Amino acid sequence: MWTWFHRLASPPTFYRFAERLAPWLLVPGLLLIGIAVWQGLFVAPADYQQGDAFRIIYVHVPAAALSLSIYTAMSVAGAIALIWRMKLAEVAVVTAAPIGASFTALALVTGMLWGKPTWGTYWDWDARLTSELVLLFLYLGVIGLHQAYADPRTAARACAWLALVGVVNVPIVHFSVQWWNSLHQGSTILSAEAIANPKMAPEMLKPLLMSMAGCYLFFGAVWLRRMQNGVLLRERRAKWVREMVLPALPADLPNARPPAGGPGTARRGDRA
Amino acid sequence: MSAAIAVFRRELRIALRRRAEWAQPLVFYGIVALLFPLGIAPESPALKVFAPAIVWVGALLAALLGVERLFRSDLDDGSLEQMLIAEVPLALLIAAKLAAQWLLTAAPLVLVSPLLGYGLGLDTGPVVILFWSLLLGTPTLVFTGGFAAALTVGAPRAGLMLPILVLPLMTPAVIFGGGAVRAAVAGLPPDAPLYFLGALLALSLTLLPMAAAGALRNAMG
Questions:
Q1: Which candidate, A43, A118, A178, B110, has a CA 20 to 30 Å from the CA of B153?
Q2: Reduced to 3 states, what is the DSSP secondary structure of residue B90?
Q3: Is A123 on the interface with B (CB under 8 A)?
Q4: Which domain does A232 fall in, by range?
């Protein structure tokens, strides 16, 4: 198990592993999201209070859950990058931030659209809304810090430190609805009491759980793909990348040749 | 420990020789607090409602003012490299540096805050809470700022980044600091937000110097 894990940390092994794994996450993820959207929009009954407005829950709740999960995942990757100096974890930190920022923005926008018909306002300076907005700024900070450094390793490790310190905000967002008497409702599905004794009708809950699972799988696939790109970009001078990429390029492309070699060295057969 | 004390004294001595520099945040703080009443309308009762926010956001901005050059001059004259290669733990030296920074830039603000509180129309009870909340909260602001400055010290393009990095990290302190004063104004017990501020203070005093040391080592390569 551990040797497998260690081997996975090497960029070429990871690249091939991700190449194989990503479709297995992407296809079920999209299928689950598709079924959840269909069931949520057409099969689940309308809410007795909110009518059809509640149906945005199938986008809003998964997006909000992911916005927190991705930040947590990013800071765990950051800790791994800083403690074990693992290059792959550095790539993981940097590539997770834009995805997390997108899900956070999605959660904020869907929350505003949901707030208008039910609360009567798009925005309220309530603890959960505000701390979710702060989370968005934390993601933007990681993205911006990454651009500020020219050297990718220094940039990634600075981002890892920021992600690690910024993780204080995650429990604040998560518990904000319990700590402060806020306009935002408490958690309906993710508490021990609620799992034992569901507070939501099963035909409403099922599409929500499917949508959540689908979004997590989708995130996993996108993250793997982005990490693959990040690894390729970093290792673009490495032999394994050249051997993999060059045969796929047209031979007369000037950039296709490695800087040191003469004409013709780009072929795989010549280097073996 | 003696190295940390030496760093602390060095900071104070440098500051004593450049008096204009450490007076800046204080003057800045005064001007910010003065502009709010002018913007709102001086005799408006709203001023009292906004007082906690004015005093806290003013402190936040003033803390931000000095942060950018926290490591800059040490980087330029090479003493930062000396701190990096010293046998003493870097985190300890950074903590000493940040403590001096707090004493020079934030402590005067804390001392002046009752005056501002009274000026903005707060009663004695909330003014006392304001003082305590700033006393507990400003070290968190300075240490957070120090961490962000350490993150960006090696990046020439990071000047504008700094506030974007720092402000989201500082929001918990403002939430609980302003919250404590608001509770006092409303006649509610301010203990809970003050305890939260104390918890943040304990976390930032112990963990942020280490994080800053790591970030600094990374930024310097």
A1: B110
A2: helix
A3: no
A4: 11-242
